[in-house]
Design a protein that fits this description.
By secondary structure, this protein is mainly β. The protein has helices spanning 43-48, 55-61, 136-139, 418-422, and strands spanning 13-14, 20-21, 29-30, 37-42, 65-67, 85-87, 90-92, 99-102, 105-106, 125-132, 146-152, 159-169, 173-184, 187-198, 207-219, 224-238, 241-242, 245-246, 248-266, 270-289, 298-315, 321-340, 346-367, 371-382, 386-399, 403-414, 434-447, 452-472, 475-496, 501-512, 522-532, 535-550, 557-573, 576-583, 602-610. It has 4 helices and 35 strands. A hairpin with a 2-residue loop joins strand 28 (452-472) and strand 29 (475-496).
């Protein structure tokens, strides 16, 4: 859980003594007082990896977190898609037990109930805070295994800054990004746009994406701030199918959007926010056909939406105390239909809408300078499945020599999705929520004035009522019969050797009594960063062992591989850099999605301009 000092750009920053985060309490909080484990990936680190998506960097830098992939760019949706995320073995593909947020607002689909991996891009991201472990008290359903909170970009000082980047590489891959940031007194704005495409390393594996993000903010007074933003992405993805069972014309065209507005207040002893968000999606999917077959006679279409209102206020009632109360409301759902290709006839599918109301209280108290106590509870009511109570409690011991010892127990839960209850066999409208308990103990320390830091986490997860498809009365049916029992270890170490050299590493070991896909038993990453004059070179090696790619009885498969990546950039002028990156330089043969062989070594070069 350790990390390098604040000016480091290469190590995941977890449990830093003076780190301030928002995900653990919704308001800015010194991480020393939080018993939960949070990893923070900063803007510079995301930029220097030259990845359009935030997920590859998170997979490297956050122990216990893994995201699936299938090619050089793009995750896709539906059959053959990647982008499944798991944390400590919770999540999977599709990702329903791990919650993705943008500035604290949920980002899963109204009908399908899972996030769209291609919507979470580096261009809009100031930093990513990953809460490792249940966060259902603050964020409700889907935060059962943890939270990935994308904190959007901002401008700190007055002025105008513009960046443009273009890169080109293997398999006719092009990635571009332009951003403009302005701050003038009380007004600020961020506008970014990108275009990315690739031919892919297999036939029928093209990917093309257009994206834009804009955020406007205005400080009404020194204590009150108003802001709003909009994010829109559209992509086309082709699925070639498994190598042994290929597809033709398995294509999807996806549009995802989100907008939000917030009124924030910040005083010495109290702070809070009232926010509104609205997410929407439009999906057109051709399921394709196998060679020798016939094209689909109808195409799947759907629209989904989610709107919500969130309020919280946090206050210091007396010395060392912080009390946070909040309320969340969400309305989500959508409709699906099949469109007959020959006639344009619309054949209705499902049309469902649901509501969720919740209130929560979180209480934190510092007892002297050595101990912080945190306890919280949430009551969550779902219009279809009923009411759930969610508690959590933890202790943080502030020990000598910049050491922290923390203990946490928390409950996580997930309501069944509309897809699981009403769409596609084996749907079942009588499903109940999944739930689990997480027990965690962690220790971290910083030495050498913060240049060296390290940490270790131990956790145990036990849950029941997991939703799974089982034979019932001669047919497959979703039922609450599954169990989860996971335990493991997570470690991090970072060392700033000198102004030129920095190294970092993290390792996670996960044991699952009931294995799931996209959750490796062993995950190790070791990286180094060297800066000299105009040059910066970074390299990293990731080792994956016992990654389950198929858990179907009789078809079980596991993968293991070593990936070596290398990035380099050279400062031509104060306003321009040249960069080059190489991935999988050992040319490993491996699969992450069963039946989808990954590509060997790839390269990309480009230029980054600032003015």
């Amino acid at each position: 859980m350790a990390q390098t000092a604040k000016d480091s750009t290469r190590a995941a920053r977890s449990l830093t003594i003076d780190e301030v985060v928002v995900t653990g309490t919704r308001n800015e909080t010194d991480i020393r007082h939080l018993p939960i484990t949070i990893s923070v990936i900063g803007r510079k680190q995301l930029e220097e990896n030259y990845q359009p998506s935030v997920l590859p960097t998170l997979t490297e830098q956050v122990p216990g977190l893994f995201a699936t992939s299938r090619g050089i760019m793009g995750y896709g949706v539906s059959a053959g898609a990647a982008g499944g995320m798991s944390l400590r073995g919770v999540g999977g593909s599709p990702t329903a037990g791990l919650l993705v947020l943008i500035d604290g607002h949920p980002q899963y689909m109204g009908l399908m109930g899972h996030p769209i991996a291609d919507a979470y891009q580096t261009m809009m991201t100031e930093r990513v805070e990953v809460l490792r472990g249940p966060a259902s008290v603050l964020y409700g359903s889907n935060a059962m295994g943890g939270v990935i909170n994308i904190v959007t970009r901002k401008m700190q000082e007055d002025g105008v800054k513009t960046n443009a980047q273009i890169g080109y590489g293997s398999y006719n891959t092009l990635q571009t990004e332009v951003s403009n940031r302005v701050k003038n007194g009380r007004f600020s704005s961020v506008v970014t746009g990108s275009y990315n495409r690739t031919d892919g390393h297999r036939e029928d594996m093209k990917f093309e994406q257009y994206s834009g993000y804009a955020k406007l903010g205005y400080d009404l007074t020194d204590a009150w701030k108003l802001w709003g933003d909009v994010n829109l992405t559209q992509f086309k993805a082709s699925n070639p199918g498994e190598v042994s069972n290929p597809y033709i014309d398995n294509d999807s065209r996806i549009t995802r959007g989100m907008t939000s507005f917030a009124l924030e207040n910040h005083y010495d002893k109290t702070s809070g926010a009232l926010s509104f968000f609205y997410n929407w999606g439009r999906h057109k999917i051709d399921d394709g056909y196998h060679p020798g077959g016939t094209p689909q006679t109808s195409l799947f279409n759907s629209k989904d939406r989610m709107l919500g209102l969130s309020w919280y206020q946090s206050a210091t009632l007396f010395t060392g105390n912080r009390l946070t109360v909040g309320f969340d409301y969400q309305h989500f759902g959508g409709e699906s239909w099949n469109k007959v290709a020959a006639t344009g006839e619309r054949v209705p599918g499902v049309d469902k809408k649901m509501d969720e109301f919740a209130g929560y209280v979180d209480f934190r108290q510092d007892i002297g300078s050595l101990l912080s106590l945190d306890a919280g509870i949430r009551v969550d009511h779902h219009s279809h499945v009923g009411t759930e109570w969610i508690p959590q409690a933890g202790l943080s011991f502030h020990l000598p020599r910049q050491s922290e010892l923390k203990a946490m127990v928390s409950k996580g839960f997930r309501n069944p999705t509309i897809r699981e209850m009403y769409m596609f066999p084996p749907q079942n409208p009588d499903l109940k929520p999944e739930s689990l308990m997480n027990y965690e103990l962690s220790f971290s320390q910083r030495l050498l004035e913060g240049a060296l830091s390290y940490g270790v986490n131990l956790y145990y997860i036990n849950g029941d009522n997991m939703i799974m498809a089982v034979p019932t009365d001669g047919k497959m049916l979703n039922v609450n019969s599954g169990e989860i029992e996971n335990w493991g270890i997570e470690t991090n170490v970072g060392y700033r050797i000198s102004a030129r050299w920095q190294v970092n590493a993290n390792y996670s070991w996960l044991h699952m009594e009931n294995p799931v896909v996209a959750a490796p038993e062993h995950k190790l990453y070791a990286g180094a960063d060297f800066t000299q004059g105009r040059w910066r070179v970074s390299t990293g090696v990731q080792y994956i062992k016992d990654l389950h790619t198929n858990v179907v009885k009789g078809k079980e498969k596991q993968e293991g591989f070593v990936l070596w990546n290398l990035n380099a950039d050279y400062r031509l002028y104060h306003f321009a850099d040249l960069f080059m990156k190489g991935e999988n330089l050992l040319a490993q043969r491996y699969e992450i999605n069963d039946g989808f062989p990954m590509l060997k070594a790839t390269f990309m070069g480009g230029v980054n301009v600032r003015f």
